[in-house]
Amino acid sequence: MFEKEMHQARQAQLIREAEEYRLARQATRGRRRRGRRSAEREAEGRVSGSEAREGRGSVRAARA
What is the DSSP letter of 56? Predict the structure, then answer.
């Protein structure tokens, strides 16, 4: 009886972990899609404040 209860508890835990993992992956994909869509709308893309300040006076080479 005890082994069956332990098995059921472990099974429930694995199901919860799988659901959390699935939701995390789904959220990550959604953020990537939103990022791509916003980048497509903006010709140059967005530059954050710290990168803009550091980049003044020098131009970075584009990666191939």
Answer: T
- Start-end of H helices in the chain: 2-41, 49-54
Residue 22 · residue 28 · CB < 8 Å: no
Maximum CA extent, the chain: 73
Per-residue pLDDT of the chain (64 residues; tens, 9 = 90+): 899 999 999 999 999 999 999 999 999 998 888 877 766 666 555 566 655 555 555 566 677 5
Tokens 């005890």 -> residue: 2
C-alpha to C-alpha distance for 24 and 62, rounded to whole angstroms: 32
Residue type, 4: K
Identity of the amino acid at 49: G
Q: What pTM value is reported for the model? A: 0.48
Report the length, in residues, of the chain.
Answer: 64
